[in-house]
Amino acid sequence: MSNADSQDPLSSPGAVGQPALSPELAPVAEFLQQTLPFNELPLSELYRTVDRIVVQYYCRGEVFNKSTAEKGLRIVRSGAIEIRDSDNKLLDRLGEGESFHIGGLNAERGEVQATVIEDALCYLLPDLAYSQLRESNRTFDRYFSGQRSRRLRRAARYQPEPNTMMQEVRTVMSTGLVTVAPTDSVQQVAIVMAERRVSSAFIVDGETLLGIVTDRDLRTRFVARALPGATAISEIMTPDPETIDAADTVFGTTLMMTQRGYHHLPVMVDGELAGIVTASDLILAKQDDPVYLVQHISRQKDVQSIRELVSGMSNLMVQWVNSGMRAQQVSQILTAISDAITVRLIQLAEEKLGPAPVPWCWTGFGSQARGEQLLGADQDNGIIIADEAREEHLPWYKELAEFVCHGLNECGYIFCPGGIMAQTDEWRQPLATWQKTVRRWATAPTPDAVMRVSIFFDLRSIYGSSQLCSELQKTMLEQASRNSIFLAALAANALDVKPPLGIFRRFVVDRDGEHRDSLDLKKRGVLPVTEIVRLHALAHQLPQVNTNDRLKALAAGKHMTIVDSRNLADALHFIQHQRIKHQCEQILRGKKVTNFLNPRDLPKMAKEQLRDAFTIIDEAQSAVRQTYRAGMG
Amino acid sequence: MWKLRLRRRLYTRRVSGTALQRCWQVPLPYTSRDWRQVSFLVVDAEMSSLDVNEGELLSVGWVVIENGAIALDSARHYLIKAENSVGQSAVIHNLRDCELSEANTRAEVLTRFLEAAAGKVLVFHNASLDMAFLNSVSRREFDAPILMPCVDTLVREHKLLNRREVPIKSGDLRLQACRGRYNLPPYPAHNALLDALATAELLVAHAKHRSAGQKLSLGELL
Predict the structure, then answer these.
(1) Contact call for residues A379 and A413 (beta carbons, < 8 A)
(2) Contacting residues for A561 by C-beta, under 8 A, at least 6 apart
(3) Which pLDDT band, with edges at 50, 70 and 90, does B217 fall under?
(4) What separation, in Å, do the N-terminal and C-terminal C-alpha atoms of chain A show?
(5) Are A499 and A618 in contact (CB under 8 A)?
(6) Which are the contacts of A228, defined by CB distance < 8 A and separation ≥ 6?
(7) Where in chain A is the domain with CATH 2.60.120.10?
(8) Which among A254, A240, A231, A235 is positioned nearest to A212, based on CA atoms?
(9) Contact A10/B108, CB-based, under 8 Å?
(10) Are B185 and A96 in contact (CB < 8 Å)?
(11) Whether the Cβ atoms of residue A553 and residue A527 lie closer than 8 Å to each other
(12) ipTM, 2 decimals?
């Protein structure tokens, strides 16, 4: 404490212009400091703020609305408060440390009413002090300038540019250039290009770059016009091509090429031709690029080498996440990788077993079908066989299934504990048998059937005749959408797991056991969203399988408001991202990868956003209850 | 209230020209007034012993309740110069002799207190203890007790539990136990000002629950 601050205790603290909070009130300041956005305030400003607070106590049932005289910011010290809009729809439940400004809410969202649902002690920051604070502190102001959902949206969309995109283009260009004279014939140039296995050549006069000719030019300007082979190359070249400097970034180069539709760009150093960069150079530039990995999988010759190739996948995921990749992209890529492995295993099996006797389709279920796989996923798959198959054809499929399922298991996609795998006879059937099963489940939705449906109704063709998969999906959609008892059973399933928020928006965590103080992000967050969205999609016969695509289609078909659809998508992406980030930390610490997270380990803002996400899921569940379970309790 | 006025008369001549007289000159609120229209000075004191004959005041803290709410800019906390060593109770109050030596004299603090109390109703949790010490200081300074109206949240809570026919266990009337019944949070630290604030919150909660939107007169709290 400076001398100026340690004034005579008898001088009047709190007098105008004097920041002189009694140090005995430090617990109040400490409480504020642990709440958003007061944690952003410098200490001196925080103490001035405490001095202007009015402590109020409200009994259960007291309300605040636009006619409340004292607007101001109310920070809940204890108790709970509920905020509802004019349709009595629950917008938020506030608990300890959370705040609301009834004037601001009314200005922003129409007629909003706050009701005390548990006796509450509140710190009221009067309007004048509140607006002064917003004017003087930008971070503080920004916190209040948006809605809750907007805050979440920002977090889900923020994506820093990966560093690899910022390296200089010289690091990825090829320098083995083919240069020719303008008078060389097209035929001669084509022969050189073929010999050197390149897709472009430069036409130079001494040191001067005159033009460029690419494979495409040969096609469109030479072959298509049926010109004679002796035509001079200068007649079909692109004269004075655009160039880039070797010091330009990979990012800038990629941008230029995609915007202008170029596939080849000459690279200059000090104004002289030094190399060329092609679209595929840019893709392959990054060794850790997932596209690279997927391409390599398709070249492996046996299960063992596939397994080695993907053994480093968890480390790769850490790199992707660290370079700013979002959850949606990570799971998209991880799914692409498991698709590639599946396809490669099937090809290897076919090499051994010979071609399939009748058309068939390898189908992925669950998260693989939705394109939402993460690390540690087990396998969920099946085989649909064309109806013309005869008894003697079936062993081929059984052998193939056993090879592929075992291969997947070796590569880390463990056998499905529920046996939902092509190697189980039940999940390897002719189309007609599949359809019969679907009809039976839809008309008699036993709990077991409903549980299977939640995996099985998300399906996607991975290999073979996708027609068979679409046929089966068509039957599912028809059966599901017209059968309200079935939908009600699915709804019950979707409502089974509640988001882990207590009535006062505290996190509900496991009290004991291995995952003490943690919550299961997959079970409590991801699955409820997936199930809710699947239910809506089935009810409206939407063929999309990916949750994000389903949400977009639901909004496009006006089955869901755009706001609800976006909020659910953001909630899902946010939870998935936390899950992935958490998994990365576990990998880095050499721990087993799980979905259990202790909310205390999250930074304040992320904790708040996680709460927001769960609140959105909770609301979506209420909507399901009203739509599909009306009158069923 | 009329008893207070009567007793004050006995001391009129003695207090003439003192801070106590200036305090008494400000009119007191009518007991028929709604509690929200009354200004309260909620006080807590720390002493070196629970026995007024042995101990002395170490610190005093207070906050003001106005319009049924507590404005934190009214919060004050004063350390009082000890005449004897603090001894054992320092452990309880976290006050050390060196801190107290930089403090104010009893007379200064009493003057500040009377200035703040003028026209207000005093509030304590267990008024008899705190008032005994304050009165003893006042007697030494002005040869007269303070003679201000007092609300005792401990007594109020006791009556409330009796009226509800709740069996009272030991500890049920401690400040934190009372606060817990109103869903008021615990305070981590322990000092005169924070306890005064805690008592003020308790009084507001108590009054709000008893009035339930209706009028609750000052008389019903005294």
Answers:
(1) yes
(2) A555
(3) very high
(4) 61
(5) yes
(6) none
(7) 23-146
(8) A240
(9) yes
(10) yes
(11) no
(12) 0.90
Instruction: Identify the structural domains of chain B with CATH numbers, from first to last.
Output: 31-220 (3.30.420.10)
- Put simply, the answer to whether B75 touches A77 (Cβ < 8 Å) is no
Mean pLDDT value across residues A446-457: 79
Token pair, residue A620, equals: 């979506």
d(CA A281, CA A264): 10
Residue A414's identity, in one-letter code, is I
Outline which parts of chain A fall under CATH 3.30.460: 331-628
A54 in B contact zone (CB under 8 Å)? yes
- Partner-chain contact B185 A10, CB within 8 Å: no
Beta bridge partners of A174: A276
Cis before A37? omega within 30: yes
Look up residue A598 and give its two tokens. Answer: 């202790």
Does any CB of chain A come closer than 8 Å to the CB of residue B204? yes
- Band (A402; pLDDT cuts 50, 70, 90): very high
pTM (2 d.p.): 0.49
Q: Quote the CATH superfamily of domain A168-284.
A: CBS-domain (3.10.580.10)
Q: Is the Cβ of B61 closer than 8 Å to some Cβ of chain A?
A: yes
d(CA A608, CA A435): 46
- Asked: is A23-146 a CATH 3.30.70.1660 domain? The reply is no
CA B220 – CA B218 distance, rounded (Å): 5
Instruction: Convert the pLDDT of each residue in B160-177 to its tens digit.
Output: 988 888 888 888 899 999
- Among residues A452, A297, A445, A448, which one has the least CA distance to residue A365? A452
Length of chain B measured in residues: 222
The C-alpha of B187 sits at a distance from chain A's nearest C-alpha, in angstroms, of: 7
Which amino acid, residue A630? A
Instruction: Output the six-digit token pair for A301.
Output: 């010759």
| Cα dihedral value B78, B82, B88, B92, nearest 10 | 0
Domain with CATH 3.10.580.10 in chain A: 168-284
Q: Which two tokens stand for residue B215?
A: 């009028």
Q: Which residue has the tokens 């207090």?
A: B15
Whether residue A458 contacts residue A365, with contact meaning beta carbons closer than 8 Å, is answered with yes
| Nearest of A146, A152, A121, A136 to residue A40 by alpha carbon | A136
Tokens of A40: 């952003």
Residues whose CB is less than 8 angstroms from the CB of residue B169 and which lie 6 or more positions away in sequence, other chains included: none
For domain A331-628, the question of CATH label 3.30.450 is answered with: no
CB contact under 8 A, A13 and B103: no
C-alpha–C-alpha distance, residues A238 and A245, integer Å:
19
At B105-130, the pLDDT tens digits run 888 999 999 999 999 999 999 999 99
Is the distance from CB of A461 to CB of A578 less than 8 angstroms?
no
Whether the CB-CB separation of B137 and B110 falls below 8 Å is answered with yes
